[in-house]
Amino acid sequence: VGCDRSKNLVDICGEKNFQAFVCDALSVPIRSGSCDACISIAVIHHFSTAERRLATICELARLLRPGGTALIYVWAMEQEYKNQKSKYLKEKNGSKDKEEEIDIGMSQRPLSDQMSGSSSQDSACSDRLLNDLKDERCDAKPVADSRLPVHTNRTSFHAQDLLVPWHLKGGTKKKEESVDTVLFPAGSKESQELSPVFHRYYHVFCEGELEAACRSLDCVRVQKSYYDQGNWCVVLEKL
C-alpha cells in the first residue's frame, strides 16, 4: 500500500492497479501497529523544522507492529563521502542556475496542532528529545532571517536549509502530449521559456543527524545506519 501528498501521482498508481491513497506523512490514516514494514524515501527532508521531521519518524514508528522494520532515506549534506562523488554530482548537465535568495514566510502551525489525537506512547516527541536534535553536527551556516539560498543543481551543498530548482519538463505542451521528453538543453533560453521552474524546500542531513533523531525515540531500535549515493539511510525496528 502506497501513499503520497500528490493526488496526480496517486492517480497514476491507481491507473496501474496499485493500492495508493493521498495523505500527509504527519498523519497517516492507517491503524497503529498494523504494518510489517514501512519505507520513507526522500520525504522527511522536505519538512522544515526538526520538530516536524521527528514527528514524521514518530508517525512511521506508530504504523509498525512490534518487530516490524522501517527504511528511511534522506538527502545528505555530504555529496562527496570517503573521496567518492555521489551520483547526483556525477550527473552534471551543464545547467547554470544562478545562486539567489527568496523571501519566505516564517509562520508555521504549532507541532501540537499537527499531533493532536495521536497516542502518547507512539508520538513521544518531547521537548527533551527535540533539544537533543539541535544542529551541532556539521559546519553548515545557519539560515539567517527568512531568506533561503537557492541551490545550483548538480553541485555540493553549502547550507542545510535551501530551495532546489525543479524544472517542469514540457510545460507548454498540450495535456494529451507526453511531458517526459526534455525538449531543449537545461538552462537554454528555449528551456526556460517552455519549462516553469519551481523551488522545493529541502533540509539536507549531516552525518549522524538522521540516526540521532531515530535513536531519540524509545519505541524503536536502529538496526543499521549507512550512506548510499548522496543519501543518509537508517533501518529501524519497532520495539
Please outline what is shown here.
The protein is an alpha+beta fold and 239 residues long. It has 7 helices and 12 strands.
What does it look like?
The protein has 239 residues and is of the alpha+beta class. Among the domains are: 30 residues, no CATH class; 110 residues, Vaccinia Virus protein VP39 (Rossmann fold, 3-Layer(aba) Sandwich), CATH 3.40.50. The chain contains seven helices and twelve strands. The protein has a four-stranded mixed beta sheet. A two-stranded parallel ribbon has the order 1-2. It has a two-stranded antiparallel ribbon with strand order 5-6. Strand 11 and strand 12 form a beta hairpin. The chain is globular.
